[in-house]
Amino acid sequence: MKDKILILFSGGMDSCGVLYKCLTEPEYDHLDVHAHHVHLINRLHRDKAEAIACKNITKWLRKQGHQFEYTESTVDYSFASALPWDTEICWCIGAMIAQTDISIKYAEAGRHAEDEDASAHPIVIERLDKVFEYMTASQHRNFEPVKNLPVVKHMSKKEIWFYLPEELRKMVWFCRAPINKGESIEPCWKCHTCEYVKDNKLI
Fold this sequence. Notes:
The protein is an alpha/beta fold.
């Protein structure tokens, strides 16, 4: 049985880059892939846009013949006036999944070379890594923690974007606060990820 990597998949360009790399690059042939999407329901209302992206991306990848496990869960914190770091929630969910599947040896959420904003401060990342290690080193796993595998750590967001096939670039979602217009969902073009897309002329 192969070891497994758990990819915390949001439908955004970073985690899509991780998923695509793990499914297509020979260096990851020794790993089975489990992609898990956490529907984050909060006051930014981007869960619908991310859900559509995840559905389209996974469907496209499977049509290309790629085999992987895909699961979902939901965390509703729309009641909260302040937003926690999304990655903290997703890593906690990931740790719970890893406790139930001892074949999961690695995990990744899409950390990239430009993770330098306040939410990705080195102290914050170090704290989260310690919590994840502590939670995954459970009795079920013989106290062996899951290791973070930095699949796209050496790449910028722009590099990840152009690494993806054009078909996938059309499906990924990037806006942090999308505008829901009934049957259509549009980027706000004001959040930091929208600004990044504009500044780097990705779309």
